[in-house]
Amino acid sequence: xxDSNRLFKFSLPFHMNHYTLRSATMYASGVLYSLGLxxxxxxxxxxxxxxxxxxxxxFIDWIPFICSTLGMIIVNSLDKVQLIGNNNSGFNDNSITxxxxxxxxxxxxxxxxxxxxxxxxxxVLILKFLIPGYTNDPTIRMGTENVGANVAVMASCILLxxxxxxxxxxxxxx
Length: 174
What we know:
The protein has helices at residues 18-49, 59-77, 98-130, 137-164. By secondary structure, the chain is mainly α.
């Protein structure tokens, strides 16, 4: 390759094409989700087996994670093509079809479930651990693992959303 056709002064040690980037991003998303799930399982196992305090992980702690997971499933199962209008006349009320409105409402519900999961985990951390004064290290870790699990699910959803909107020519469409 000649020097006039290069973007950078140095050559990159590896070449990532579209397919390897897409696969690597999907695998990274799966790793993030599995780390979040493992954090919830770890908090539950610690609460059941070796927790010395009176605070334990219950179903209330799992509700935010379940909401985040449902939101992730809803957001990433939508067909992104249905969100964008087919005509170039603009986004007035006449140009948006019924299927676009339905897709946007379902997308809003999915993102709302993600937000409810994240804010719910922070609420559980505050109401169950911080306000009663359970701030010592092994006990507070159960609440922070709940928040960390929901952050991992949200990051996994963001990665999957980005990789699903990349077209074949490496441009973002949405």
